[in-house]
């Protein structure tokens, strides 16, 4: 983490519903101005954690500090937070200006100042000139932007968003992801964003907390989560990963030689401690870090021979599944179709070679 001060600080935070530990001993900080995502499968506890931040649940144990203040006795409307929900619920009987002004109803601002704030908010969400439109005259993306403006006009220190793009179709969703990120950068407000969509979290976030069964498994930048996951669950949840059971054979400094079963003896770099000879590990490799070729590679190239079992042509890239002798399941390989026609080149049953570089191999502890 950088030297930026924390805006949110969680200390041993837990929320139990009877026997269910929806949030289980969670401690971390969110920096001022960060775009921070809570990511995990359904039921992992991300919405409960988010509701705890907003004050809609009280913790079973632990503390939440926001902007230096402990929040246990602070009700939602007095917190320096504001919320944006999945079903963005803008009011059909109010026009765009009325909807945005609704966010300020408690502030009792003089009319001129309120109008100036609404104009500023309209500009922020690129809807200047749309103030008099009714909500049924807006597209889904525009409605979502109005909901954002209504939350931002109060200038909260933290904006809490629960799958705010969930109701939008894929194209619009992708466009809104970029817009939301640009908006967050320009206003500089800390965003805490709940999503189960890993691509969405990777696209927008400065850092992501990956959750499972109430616990935070890893908090990291998108790149580190993808390239250097610290356990098998994170590696499998973010993107696609091929896994092999392995055993460390030899260690020379941080360079390891690992028996990776169907992949053969592979070289890998140790990241962290505990990778001594004899230790069982999980050997992991991403599909796009494997290359397919027809001919046997030269010496000193990490390679294994297999047979194409299945393939899918996806336009920009193709996915291949390659059977290796002794492997439980086919290995996934993804290749970019740089040249026209390349995606169709590999027929089923064809014998191929897989090659990879030293950096492609990720070693994970056994669960
Ligand atoms: P989703 O993506 O499906 O919304 P989530 O990761 O946000 O899932 P939560 O809604 O936080 O998960 O739920 C975490 C766990 O807590 C689940 O097992 C859920 O059934 C349970 N839970 C949540 N709210 C309550 C409640 N009010 N009473 C009892 N159990 C609850």
What does this structure look like?
- This protein is α+β, with helices and mostly antiparallel strands.
- It has eight helices and 20 strands.
- It has helices at residues 46-54, 96-102, 111-124, 140-152, 170-187, 198-204, 222-227, 232-237; strands at residues 6-17, 20-31, 35-39, 61-66, 69-70, 81-84, 158-162, 190-195, 207-212, 215-220, 242-252, 255-259, 265-269, 280-285, 291-293, 302-313, 317-323, 331-336, 351-356, 362-365.
- The strands form four sheets. Strands 6-7-8-3-9-10 form a six-stranded mixed β-sheet, with helices on both faces. Strands 13-12-11-14-20 form a five-stranded antiparallel β-sheet.
- It is globular, with a radius of gyration of 25 Å.
- Bound molecules: adenosine-5'-triphosphate (ATP).
- Adenosine-5'-triphosphate is lined by residues 17, 20, 22, 40, 42-48, 196.
Strand percent estimate: 35-45%
- Spell out the helices and strands N to C: EEEHEEEHHHEHEHEEHHEEEEEEEEEE
Low-confidence stretches: none
Specify Rg, calculated over alpha carbons. Answer: 25 Å
Q: Strand order, main sheet: write it out.
A: 6-7-8-3-9-10
Keywords:
20 strands; binds adenosine-5'-triphosphate; alpha+beta; 8 helices; 367 residues; 22% helix
């Amino acid at each position: 983490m950088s030297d930026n001060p924390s805006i949110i600080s969680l200390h041993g935070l837990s929320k139990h519903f009877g026997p269910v530990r929806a949030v289980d001993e969670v401690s971390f900080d969110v920096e001022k101005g960060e775009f921070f995502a809570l990511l995990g499968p359904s039921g992992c506890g991300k919405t409960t954690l988010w509701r705890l931040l907003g004050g809609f649940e009280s913790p079973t144990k632990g503390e939440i500090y926001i902007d230096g203040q402990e929040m246990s006795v602070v009700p939602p409307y007095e917190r320096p937070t504001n919320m944006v929900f999945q079903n963005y619920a803008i009011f059909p009987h109010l026009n765009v200006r009325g909807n945005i002004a609704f966010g300020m109803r408690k502030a009792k601002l003089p009319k001129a100042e309120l109008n100036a704030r609404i104009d500023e908010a309209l500009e922020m969400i690129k809807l200047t000139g749309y103030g008099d439109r009714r909500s049924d005259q807006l597209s889904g993306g525009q409605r979502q932007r109005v909901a954002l403006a209504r939350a931002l006009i109060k200038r909260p220190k933290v904006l809490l968003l629960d799958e705010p793009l969930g109701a939008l179709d894929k194209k619009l969703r992708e466009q809104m992801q970029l817009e939301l990120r640009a908006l967050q950068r320009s206003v500089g407000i800390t965003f805490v964003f709940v999503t189960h969509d890993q691509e969405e979290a990777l696209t927008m976030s400065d850092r992501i907390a990956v959750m499972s069964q109430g616990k935070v498994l890893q908090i990291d930048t998108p790149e580190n989560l993808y390239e250097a996951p610290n356990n098998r669950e994170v590696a499998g949840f973010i993107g696609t990963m091929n896994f092999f059971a392995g055993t460390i054979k030899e260690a020379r400094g941080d360079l390891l030689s690992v028996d990776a079963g169907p992949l053969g003896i592979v070289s890998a770099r140790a990241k962290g401690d505990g990778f001594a000879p004899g230790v069982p590990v999980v050997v992991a490799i991403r599909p796009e870090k494997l290359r397919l070729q027809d001919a046997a590679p030269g010496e000193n190239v990490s390679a294994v021979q297999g047979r194409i079992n299945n393939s899918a042509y996806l336009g920009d890239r193709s996915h291949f599944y390659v059977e290796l002798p002794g492997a439980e399941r086919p290995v996934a390989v993804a290749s970019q179709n740089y040249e026209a026609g390349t995606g169709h080149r590999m027929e089923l049953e064809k014998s191929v070679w897989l090659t990879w570089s030293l950096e492609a191999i990720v070693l994970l502890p056994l669960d």
